[in-house]
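Q&A log
Question type: sequence-to-structure
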Amino acid sequence: QVQLVESGGGLVQPGGSLRLSCAASRISFSIYTMGWYRQAPGKQRELVASITANGRTNYAESVKGRFTISRDNAKNTGYLQMNSLKPEDTAGYYCNFPVPALRPWGQGTQVTVSS
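Response status: OK
Response body:
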């Protein structure tokens, strides 16, 4: 089955930046829309950014202008560049391929924004 491995999270001060990576295996990476999701304690998991096979991107309003999603099909890897981080961005971050249906989730990577 599909394997998703997220990395790059950590503790960062407000206003800082992080770059998350998503390594995917056992999937035809280049043909699927990829998404980054996050889940904060006590909240539902939400989609924050997505990128189609041809590179079209979409962002949640809360991260628009601060986050950038990208993909490297040759490496089967997706990225989420997060700038101007805020405390409310604190969450576990996960990647997945929502079309035609979500795959099993990886372990995610924790992002904590705090001074």
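Response note: The two ends are 40 Å apart (CA to CA).
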